[in-house]
Design brief:
Blueprint lengths: L5 E2 L1 E2 L3 H6 L1 E2 L3 E2 L1 E3 L2 E3 L11 E4 L10 E4 L10 E4 L2 H9 L7 E3 L3 H8 L4 E2 L6 H5 L6 E4 L3 E5 H4 L2 H7 L1 E6 L15 E3 L14 H13 L3 E6 L5 H14 L3 H11 L7 H15 L12
Parallel strand pairs: 1-7, 2-4, 7-10, 13-16, 14-15, 14-16
Antiparallel strand pairs: 3-11, 5-6, 8-9, 12-13
Helix pairs in contact: 7-8, 8-9, 8-10
């Protein structure tokens, strides 16, 4: 939530904003047809600018009917949604792309109620205290994280985690003694470590919990190597797709993923097991 990286312009009404908004969001006022960007926000420094209104779902222009039935087009005109309209203006003020929150605040707050607040002013030490949450691989169902996140009871409660896949050497505090909800595959953080013999078991464990509508957290010590390899292997298995395609998807969700060379070689073996042939040139994967 650092102001150097994120900005959340809220273009809803003042009443809606005061009732609740995304943590650290600032309300964008409108005077006539002009959006007024708060002077405290330096958009040139922002890497991720995410605009949201109440419930915009599409970037398409909507039809507005002013009830004028005298014309051939029945008084209809094309108008952008509030988030889209404001986002277009912000593109001239930022160095990076402007994002529109799909489904708006209505959808976001329903899925991530723990990111709602009425607080407006944040102290720097409060912003520094924010802890990142695990990343979503399958929205609301499968998360990828690290050992610290796996040990945080607030994160477990907020995300409604019901099962863990632990591919680190450390033992976590949750679901101990319950093999139905904890799969602990002890793999060292080493290029010589073997994960291949456990991949089918990992995939089946995740599949079973998805069928049970459980929320699963897959994690390793730092959440960038062993757990990422496990998630990539699951996507290859579940979707019967190439290593490269699964890798690209996970990389998009977690851009600092970095399975070690030994794990990548084993994922290539797994691709051959899943598809009958090694299709992906692992030298083409970006580490």
């Amino acid at each position: 939530f650092s102001a150097e990286y994120f900005s959340f312009p809220d273009v809803r009404s003042k009443q809606d904003y005061d009732e609740s908004h995304v943590i650290t969001a600032h309300r964008v006022k409108k005077r006539g047809n002009e959006y007024l960007i708060p002077q405290s926000v330096d958009l040139e420094c922002v890497k991720y600018c995410v605009v949201y209104d109440y419930n915009t779902w599409s970037l398409k222009i909507h039809l507005k009917d002013d009830n004028n039935t005298d014309s051939d087009d029945s008084g209809q005109e094309l108008v952008p949604g509030a988030a889209l309209e404001c986002g277009r203006i912000l593109t001239h003020l930022t160095r990076h792309p402007v994002w529109i929150l799909k489904g708006g605040y209505e959808r976001f707050s329903a899925m991530y109620h723990f990111f709602r607040t009425q607080k407006i002013i944040w102290m720097p030490q409060e912003l520094d205290a924010f802890q990142p949450y695990p990343v979503e691989i399958i929205p609301g169902r499968v998360f990828l994280g690290n050992f610290i996140q796996a040990c945080d009871p607030k994160i477990q409660k907020d995300l409604k985690i019901k099962a863990h896949v632990n591919v680190s050497m450390e033992a976590g505090p949750f679901f101990v003694g319950d093999p139905d909800r904890l799969l602990h595959v002890q793999i060292e953080d080493s290029s010589e470590a073997r994960i291949f013999p456990f991949l089918r078991h990992i995939c089946h464990f995740i599949e079973i919990h998805l069928e049970l509508d459980s929320v699963i957290l897959v994690f390793s010590t730092r959440g960038i190597s062993r757990s990422c390899a496990a998630i990539v292997a699951y996507l290859m298995h579940q979707n019967e797709q190439t290593l490269k395609r699964s890798w690209t998807y996970v990389k998009k969700c977690k851009n600092n993923m970095c399975p070690n060379r030994g794990l990548v070689t084993q994922l290539s073996e797994w691709e051959k097991t899943i598809l009958g042939n090694s299709i992906t040139d692992i030298l083409d994967l970006s580490y």
